[in-house]
Structure formats: C-alpha cells, structure tokens
Amino acid sequence: MHDFRQEFPFFNNHPECIYLDSAATTHKPQCVIDAITHAQEISNANVHRSSYHLAATVTEQYELVRTRLAQLIHAPASQNIFWTKGATEALNLIAYGLGELCLAQHPLWQGNEIIVLTSEHHANILPWQQLVQRINQIRLKTTQDKSIKKLRVTTVSPDMQGNYQYDDVYDAITDDTALIAVAHVSNALGCIHPIDLISRKAHQHKALCIVDGTQALAHISVDVQTLGCDAYVGSSHKMFGPTGVGFGYGTYELLNALPPYQVGGEMIEYVSFSASRFQSFPYKFEAGTPNIHGVLGFGAAIDFIETHRDEIQTTENQLFNYLLMQLSQITQVRILGQDNTHKISLCSMVLTHQHKPLSHYDVLRWLDNANIALRVGHHCAMPLMQHLQLDGTLRVSLSAYNTMSDIDRFIATLKDAIQHLIVENHADSIHADSIDGVIVSEHDVKSVLLPLARQFGVLQGYENIFRQIMLSSKALPQLSADEQIESYHVAGCEVDVWVKYVSQSDSFEAFANSKIIRGLLAILLEKANALSHQQRAQFDFAQYLTELGITHHLSQSRVNGLSRVIAQLSA
Ligand code: PMP
Predict the structure, then answer these.
(1) Does the beta carbon of 235 lie inside 6 Å of ligand 1?
(2) Structure pTM?
(3) What is the residue-averaged pLDDT of the chain?
(4) Which CATH superfamily is domain 2-26+308-418 in?
(5) Half-sphere exposure of 186 (CA within 13 A, CB side)
(6) In angstroms, what is the span from residue 30 Cα to ligand 1's centroid?
C-alpha cells in the first residue's frame, strides 16, 4: 500500500491523532501546502487585471487550474467551470439564478416542483426552500393570474434503515418537476446515487438535474458528461485542497442563461451610469478578486488526486471493508444504509443496547479523550434524522491516509466506550441503594448524594472528571418527557437540551439527550436552584465551572452551548 500518510504533514505534527472525519474536511498534502506558500511568497499578483509579466503569469496559472478541474470532471471546456468559495456558494448561485429564470418564464424552467432527497445536506435544501419562498412571494405581489401554480419543494426519502429504493426517485419525477437537486454521494449515509439514471429521467420530463458532488470527488471518478447532469458543484477542502475555494460546473445552456449572482469588478465588459454590460460565463459569476492562492493550492490538490486516483480508491476500499468487518462484530452497532451497494468509505451508525439508544455524544467524549476525531450529530442533514427518528449518528469517514491500526484503535476504544456506557446506564436504571459494588463502587454512590460541586475539587485527570460528571447526571432535576418541547428547547447546543423555569418553586428543571450534558446541567442547576433570582443574575456560572476544574475539559462548542444555558439561568 502506498504510504499516503507521509505526504500529509498534519500527521507528523499529530502522530497520536486518529482522524476519521475526512467528510468534514480532508487534510492537505505537502504539495498543496507548497503551492499555496509558493503563490504567496513568489507569484503574488492579481489576476485578469494587469498585463505586466507577473500578473499575466499568475493569471495563466490560475486559469490552468480551471482547465485541470475541467479535465478532472470531464467537463467539455474550462468555461463550464466557475469559481466560488465553496459548494454552498455554488448551490446558492445556481438556485438564485434559476429563480430569476423561473420569474422570466425562461424555457429552461418548466414546472412547479423542486425535488430533493431527504438525506441532502442543508446546503442542497435551503437554497431551494428559499427559492420557492422568494418566487411565491414575488408572484403573490405581482401577478393577478390565478392559473399560475405555487412552487413547492417535495422530498423522496429512504426507508427507516437509510436505504433508497431508486424507483421511488425516478417515479417522483413528472412533467411538473422543474428540477431535482441531489447529492452524488450522501454525506450522512455514504451512498453513491445513480446520477446518470436520475438525470436521464429528469430530462425526459424537461426537468433539470443539479448535483452536489461535494462528497464524491475525493473518492470516485466523476464524468459530468456521462452523468448527464446540468450542474455539478464541489468544495476544494474536501478534496485535499484549501478551504475557501469551490466550484460550479454547468452546461453551456444553463450557464449562458443564468444571471450573475453578485456584481462588481472582474465580471464586467463595460460600465457606465446609463448602462453596463457583463462578461459571458464563467466570469460573469466571479465578481471581485477571487481566492487566487486558494485556487492555485486547489490545482495542486487536483494533481494529487489525478496522480494517486487508483491507489486512493484501492486503499480506501481495503480500509473500509476492514472497518465494516470489525463493526459487524459489535452487537450494539447498527449501520445506516447498509443495503446500498455503491458507497464511499463513509459509514454512519447508531448505537443501541437492549433496544435503548446509547448517547453518541457520550461515546464521542470517550473517543475524543483517546485522540480519535470523528463526528456525531445530524451532519447538516436534519430532515434525514427527523425521517429516521434519530437525534443523530456517529459517522466515520476514511481517507487513504488512514491505516488499519487507526481502525483497530478506533474499534477498541469504541468497544470500551460502549461497555462503559452500558455499565453507567445499568447503574442508572436501578435504585442507588441496591447498586452492587461490581457495577459502581459505594464511594461513587455516596458521592452523588453529597452536593455535586464538592466532588470536583479533589479530582485530577480527565477520566475522573468525566466519571464524576456522569455520576452527577443522576442528581439532575429532570424535566419530564412530555415537557421536552420547543418552548423549553435551548438552541445552539451540541445535543438537544431543554431547560424550564418553574415559578412556584423558583427553580429550574432540565433534560438533555447526553448523559455528560445532563451531568453538567445538574452541576449548574444545583447552584442556580440554591440562589435567589437576584443572586443568579449576578452569579458567574462560567467561572464557577472553571473553579470546579471542569471547563478546561470541555470543547469550545460545548462551552458555547453551555453559555446559552447559563444565559437562561441568569435571565
Ligand atoms: N454538500 C455536502 C454533501 C457536504 O458534505 C457539504 C459539507 N459538509 C456541503 C455540501 C457544503 O460544503 P461547503 O461547506 O464546503 O460549502
């Protein structure tokens, strides 16, 4: 196997880190870092503006990347590629422009319905939802023609195990479909959707097929002409390149018809106060100075992918098969979308024990403590989680720089975490008096009967603090299940948290789906409930957690989440 890891300086700097979150962003090989440094140190000039030698050379290099990307995805010409700051911006640009075409009754827009898959990333849902709202509002104000139908977004969902029946997708496309927006690869399930068949069906009904290729390009070969889609977008940072650069591909017809999304320098042909003219595509979509160094770095990433394509795929397949084999031996693991035969090296799983969910978030804390980086939660696919009736999944996403030993360590630590949580949950489910010493020691039981805060002063080390927070969760004044409703929900936390102020007793009750968060809430509420309203308003709860030695064991996002809870306690 090619040793990809040695090409990625990140791992020299973090030899202990097991990185299983490449779907969030990939690491960068030395060649990409060198290309960006070279651009900044040596070939720094603005593009397209000046004809002096340096500027012309940089413009040439910059445009060459467009050509190389066009070759990578088999676009007919470099003009079919426009630069953006990411896939999100490219999708917004296309959706905005298509809304304008709809209003103008352009022949490319036929129908009233936009289809998206339930598993789409929010970046491929929200622009379409906004389009529909914007156009419906404009039409409501400006047209008296009652025969014009409202636009709508409709969805096609997988089954409850996360498997798609693609006939459902093909059958959903009708003459009333204006477009279908679909990921090439789902970031939440890892499945590769049959874009060629979907776009063929779309075109039979004069609908467009817009593809979010963000999760595909680092893993599989892409030929946009064979796929037959009308547009395809991606982000450099998921393809070993830098952040802040992305692209959109579109057919000649689509890009020619779409209006600019932003206006300004670079994209004009002529400007005067009486009339201005814009350039043709792709430049009409690229107002302002672009991310030149980012594009040049992306160029090196494209070369890296081209050079190592086969090895990347072989290595990822071997790693992924090994991962699946190991996971299949853990009875508490259920993998979503397991029937999908075409997948990239990404796996989303839920953990259950005796039909009860184990909190992914608590598992994550355990893994994080062992330097294993992966993602839990909704993965920017909330509608999918709602459909599957899950509060999130644990997602492992591999790249060729991972190793078998990464997987071994992950599996061993995951087993530990599961075991640990099963023991904790068992201890929870029986009355404290009857807890036998094998499950949880006498000292632990006594400790929760004492004021929670007192337990922390003497504790050293993450494991002890972690354990004590978990134990504290048992003392939380719990908000009942039927009161875990929208009005008590605290937005912005990593997991679902509800906090209710009970005025009769001047105290708070709360609940969270994670045991660690319940523990932290218990510690905060113990203090808050002992203070008067006025004292609470002046009390520094964040400082309190710091004094207990807890804060420095919390990630920034958890601190941010807790600060929202604290704001409620102090209100
Ligand atoms: N689509 C998918 C499938 C993604 O996974 C992501 C990133 N998680 C995006 C779109 C958005 O990409 P970016 O944030 O780079 O614009």
Answers:
(1) yes
(2) 0.85
(3) 91
(4) Aspartate Aminotransferase, domain 1 (3.90.1150.10)
(5) 29
(6) 24
